[in-house]
Amino acid sequence: RIPLLIDTDPGVDDALALLMAFNAPDHHVVGLTVTAGNVGLAHTTANALKLVEVCGLDVPVFAGADAPLLHPARDAGYVHGRDGFGDTGYVPATRALEGEHAALAILRLSHAYAGRLLLVALGPLTNIALALKLDPTLPQRVGRFVVMGGAVTAHGNVTPAAEFNIAFDPEAAHLVFAAFPRFDLVDWEATVAHGFSHDEAEQWLACGSPRATFYEEISRQTRLWSVDRRGDLWHAADALAMACALQPDHVQEWAERPVAVELAGRLTRGVTVVDWLRQESEVDNARIALRYEPAAFHAMMRDALAAA
Ligand code: BDR
Ligand code: CA
């Protein structure tokens, strides 16, 4: 089975992606490295531990960055709840964090599974940037790297042109995009293009499994926010990224292009700039997922929620 390491900031859509990973028959989750992002690190780590416990699994959870590399954090508690999991007041997990820092865990696991590791980033890229600073040879050992982030034609979700994960820590994203010769990018605009109906999702959530019941509770506030702000369709960015990571054969259209991160713009800091016409560079570092088979995406989410 493919060893899968997930860097994440749970986060309601992170949680759905993690359920998909836990249910993937051909993959084995070797760790969750957690960063601040949607909310602060104390909450994102507690949420990761809780989800692992709800699923009855023994996946190690590593705490990492508690802030972006350079600038103060601007979180997304207004989407995910102040605790990142819908403010349900759940009983904290009894299981504990590992003692190792997330950046060190990324490096150790990259050695343990050298050449085979599937690394999936569902949050700001701070932990991976820290790992790269400690050991710039990291990309040589990662078999495949999938990033949820960016807005490839600059239709942003936190600023007019920038997407949350990149805007949260643009310097980290810059370091990571410059260091990995090749990665798969699943962006916010693909997420919007793959919105799915709340009505359909509510049927999955009502299936009665412990995972679905827990997820129904922690996602309730976000789903209400989403209906109010974004209309009838639910946009689950990290779930789409995980679908592309786990079952890339269902990607119906990729675009390979140079992608860089804007660090300086007054209006455009944190924007992922795609060189669509290869004006500045001929080096395609990113393979951008543009279209995914909707039925396969929906089935993966439904089955992950229903899993025992
Ligand atoms: C990304 O930002 C976060 O709020 C989500 O968890 C997702 O990773 C979408 O822009
Ligand atoms: Ca996330």
Automatic annotation (TrEMBL):
Keywords noted in UniProt: Hydrolase
Inosine/uridine-preferring nucleoside hydrolase domain span: 4-298
Top-level taxon: Bacteria
Name of the protein described by the UniProt record: Nucleoside hydrolase
Species this protein is from: Luteimonas yindakuii
SUPFAM superfamilies documented for this protein: Nucleoside hydrolase (SSF53590)
One Pfam family, short name: IU_nuc_hydro
InterPro entries referenced in this protein's UniProt entry, alphabetically: Inosine/uridine_hydrolase_dom, IUN_hydrolase, Ribo_hydro-like
Signal sequence extent: none
MF GO annotations: hydrolase activity, hydrolyzing N-glycosyl compounds
